[in-house]
Hints:
Elements: E1 10-19, E2 22-32, E3 37-41, H1 48-56, E4 63-68, E5 71-72, E6 83-86, H2 98-108, H3 113-126, H4 142-154, E7 160-164, H5 172-189, E8 192-197, H6 200-206, E9 209-214, E10 217-222, H7 224-229, H8 234-239, E11 244-251, E12 254-257, E13 260-261, E14 272-278, E15 284-285, E16 294-306, E17 310-318, E18 321-328, H9 331-335, E19 343-349, E20 354-356
Parallel strand pairs: 3-8, 3-9, 6-7, 7-8
Antiparallel strand pairs: 1-2, 1-4, 4-5, 9-10, 11-12, 11-14, 12-13, 14-20, 15-19, 16-17, 16-19, 17-18
Amino acid sequence: MSTLGAALPIRIRGIEKKYGPVTILQRLDLDVAAGEFLTLLGPSGSGKTTLLMILAGFVRPDAGSIKIGGDEIIAAPPHRRNIGMVFQNYALFPHMSVSQNIAFPLRQRRVPAADIVRRVTSALEMVRLNGYGERRINQLSGGQRQRVALARAMVFEPRIVLMDEPLSALDKGLREHMQLELRDLHRSLGMTTIYVTHDQREAITMSDRIAVMNGGAIEQIDRPEALYAHPRTHFVASFIGESSFIPVDIRDGVPWFRDAKLQTTARTSSSGRYLMSVRPEKVRLAAAGGDDGINILAGVMGDVIYQGDSFACSIDIGDGVKLTMRDYCREDTMARLPARGESIRVSIAASDAILVEAG
């Protein structure tokens, strides 16, 4: 089944949704490129599923515009939008066979019988379920059901595919396997895809870009590696990966913690309170002295937590602030770890000390 040329861009402007006094989406803007895999990432209640349902046509917004390929679709019913949808619970028909489930959207569109057979066969091959067409849904594993749902969403060659946490019901091993399968399938078909999840590792694994949602708004949108390396807010830094936060005062553009002047490649013209975000793998035990571009902080060694291939240490640097240091379990590294309660110094490169907005 070929969908070359079918991908279209999406332009969302001023989408707003309220339920009574509660605002779910706050005049949200979003652009999705043709053929892009974009993930809406955020905690429960952040508005990501509501936005997906508005795109699909199942929820009507209170205000705003949605254009697909330049055509306004805000008033179009779901079946007129030519959008494929994969739901969290798959929404398969248990009384139908695999082939009948996949053929359902084609029959709804009154596609000729011969074309239905051809397209269903092609869809089964696409998701590697050849020979499963006559099986019932209750005879399939969770991963196989997920593939049937995906084939049904794509069999009518939609211009957009929306996925609402389709892997959340799978166990860890199968979920990680399906993440790679979905990513490879997207690359081969080139479909514009919007994916909803609250799992940041899943989003990082699969996405071209990630839109981090919080409180009905997009807090930051960027490539996964850029979001991880350069978060702009406390929320994004804490939601994408793991971070320690050092409260700093900005004086003449320079961050200070207690009486220590810190170095960072980040710049701000604002004065006042900020947070310095530091990833655990960027914290290291410091040698004597210090070099330009390296921050040296004194602290006290806390607990060391063994995590299989790595370990994590808690380090108290004063004023109730604790840093997490993580490293791989190499023999030389483990041998030179200070004991709990020992005074130590840690180093953080200026390029790894990221200023983020507090709050």
